[in-house]
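Intended use. Records like the one below are meant for learning the mapping from a protein sequence to its folded structure. Do not use them to infer anything beyond what is encoded.
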Amino acid sequence: MHLPTAADVNAARANIAGIARRTPLWRLDADLPGTNIYLKLENLQPLGSFKIRAAVNAMKSKDPDALRGGLIGASAGNFGLGLALVARQMGIAVTIVAPDSAAKAKTSVLETLGAKVIRIPFADWWQVLMARRFDGADGVFFHPVAEQAVVAGNATIGAEILEDLPDFDAVIVPFGGGGLISGIGSVMRRQKPDVRMLAVESEAAQPAAAALKAGTPVKVTHTPSFVDGIGSSMVLEEMWPLIRETVDQALCVSFAEIIDAIRLLAVKHHVIAEGAGAAAVAAAMSGRAGKGNIVCVVSGGNIDAPKLAAILNGADTV
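Structure written out for the chain above:
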C-alpha cells in the first residue's frame, strides 16, 4: 500500500459525489484561551459516519462484474453501513462480520438495509481482519482499513478541510485501524506539511501510541467498551508504513473525558457524536493537543439511544 496521490483523491471525490456529503467545518463554542476548535462533522453523513466515503470509493473502484456473487465486509458497523447502502442500490448481496461489541444502533440499520450480520467475539473478528477472509460467507472481501481505495476515500476529508480553513495548526483524528488518519494525513503532508497530525485513542486500547514508541507494531491489551469505533489489538502491519509517515503523535483520552465531550456536543451544540467521534473533541478540550487552530474530526454519530440518554442524564459510565 502507499499513500493516496492527488490523482487518487480527485478520483475518490468524483466516485463519492452524490452519495457522500461535503460536511461542514463548524467552530466549537468553547472558552479555551489561545485555542480555536473546529469540528469536521462527519456525523452528518448519510448513515452517520465518514465511512461512507471509504465504502463507496472502495466499491466503485472494483469491477462490478466481480461483485455479482456478493461481498463480505468486516466492520464494527459504520463501514458496513456504507457497503450495504451501495450494495442495495446495485442489487448485490452483502454480509457484514461484526464484533460482538458493535453498537446495536449500527447493526440494526445494517439489517434494515438488507445486510446479513454475523456477530463474533472481538478476538475472532480481529483475526478476520488479519486473514482478509471469513469462512462463513461467500463474496469479495472488503477490508475496512487496509485498502488503497478506502484510504483514498478518507483522504477526501483532508481536501475539504484545506479548502474550508486556510490556517490551522493540528488535526485530531480518531484512531481505529489508521485508515482515516492516513488518508487525511496524506493530503496534509503533500499540501500543508507543518500541520501536526494527532491520533486519538481511548483507555480501551492504545495500539498507535505503542507502535510509535516501539517503532513497529506491537500487541496491546484491548478492552471492549462503548467507544466501539476506535481501539484494536495492534496496528496492522500493512498500515504501519502509512501511519509512520502521517502521524506525529498519539493522544489518549479517558472514558470520562469522552462522555463529557459527548454531553458537551449534544447539549451545547445539538451535535450527536458516538464515542469515537467525540474522542477528538475530548483531546482538544483537555489541552493535550496544544494551542492554536485545531480541527477535530467528529467521525460518526451512531451511538445507542440508551447510552446517549444515560450520558445526557449525567451518567459517569455507560
